[in-house]
Amino acid sequence: MLEKHTQLAVEKGEMLPLMEEFYTIQGEGYHTGTAAYFVRIGGCDVGCHWCDVKESWNAELHPPTHIEKIVSNAKKYAETVVVTGGEPLTWDMSQLTTKLKEANLRVHIETSGAYSVTGTWDWFCLSPKKTKLPVDDAYAIADELKVIIYNKHDFIFAEEQAEKVNNKAILFLQPEWSKRDEITPLIVDYVMSNPKWRVSLQTHKYLNIP
After folding, report:
1. What distance in Å separates the CA atoms of residue 197 and residue 170, rounded to the nearest whole number?
2. pLDDT tens-digit profile of 6-23?
3. What CATH number is given to the structural domain containing 53?
4. Residue ranges for the binding site for [4Fe-4S] cluster?
5. DSSP code for 135
6. How far apart are the first and last CA of the chain?
7. Fewest CB atoms within 10 Å of the CB: 58, 123, 156, 165?
């Protein structure tokens, strides 16, 4: 159980349950291949059965960290910071993004969009999940729609999500890693037949980097 003053700081977004932070190459979506500092925030109740970071789900396992420390670490390494999770929008991102932008950093987010949008983002990657659909604001501001394909039915879900997102969002289909050998050929065929979509791969896993 957190002390009362720490709990209050977390609720205000002055502290966040930090799982990990690291400098690496963006492996997925529109910015694949570019350097970025990743900030992984703990806490998620969306519950994707194929999630590859289930250890992020329980926020209580990850120490509340002052956002000033996160910003200080990030600006040592990168011009771009990617906030991910877990589900980062579980928490108020307003103060973190303000501090990051004051440090002249570009600020990206990867989110399911299941919670109210807080913070100011230079790039908003929306990766919706069937278990808890995005809020309307997330569809409206998404720069990128990235749908994970685990089975054939997910193509139907992807099209449903594409109908909801704004018309400037770039559309990606990404195979779920454990089924990549089975699913990737299906995605390739689908994109060739439906060229509004692009293929996204988890290239960092092929490169064996974080």
Report:
1. 8
2. 889 988 999 999 999 999
3. 3.20.20.70
4. 44, 48, 51
5. P
6. 31
7. 156
